[in-house]
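The protein record filed here.
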Amino acid sequence: MTQKEYARLSGLIYLLTILLGIFSLVYVPSKIPTAWENASLTAQNILEYEFLYRLGILGGILLYILFSILPLALYRTFAPVNRGCALLMVIFALTSIPFTLLNIVNKVDALTLLSGAEYLLTFEKEQIYTQVLLLLKSYSNGIQIIHVLWGLWLLPFGYLVYKSNLLPKILGILLMAGCLSYLVRFCTNLLFPEYQIPAFIRVPASLGEIGTCLWLLIMGIRTPPTITESNQKLSTSKIEGMS
């Protein structure tokens, strides 16, 4: 495959991960809200929309499987710009995969507790519901920590976009700013858990990732000049300078 074809493939995979992310991380939680002060209500919400809850888990798994392919396709697109930086991007992105998949186990375990299996009859319902809420809290905490890796991979990625001239430089700036926003959110949630983070903090990452995805998929990358073309331009400049 050519560099341009890898860029288009990256855009397609990126779009699928974004759509799956919106479904599993935004839509499903909005339909099955977690009532942190009411374990019984949280459990009832899950049981009422159990199939949607299971679809959310499946969507999350598919998301991270696709996300494991994305940095490899991006590597083939941007490695000619800076191989070391492209490799760092891949390492940060792939490192997040096992953590995210293991974190989903908390949501699966919550379903197990609500399954009504005989071996759970020794527990009171309120005890089970409390355990479910604890598992969901553990999942939420895991997502907060994984934010670090979700942010770090955007830094070398954004740098590559900025330096390559294959895409608009503004996208590279937004991606690097997105890295900072992820780290700010993590540190704020950890150090000041009661503080409500303004929504605009998430804007750079969203604009950078969605913008880069759509640009790669629709517009593709600019064709980098070949060595021959570069030499011709250099020769022309020298001749013009001598005349």
Summary: The radius of gyration is 23 Å. The first helix runs from residue 3 to 31.
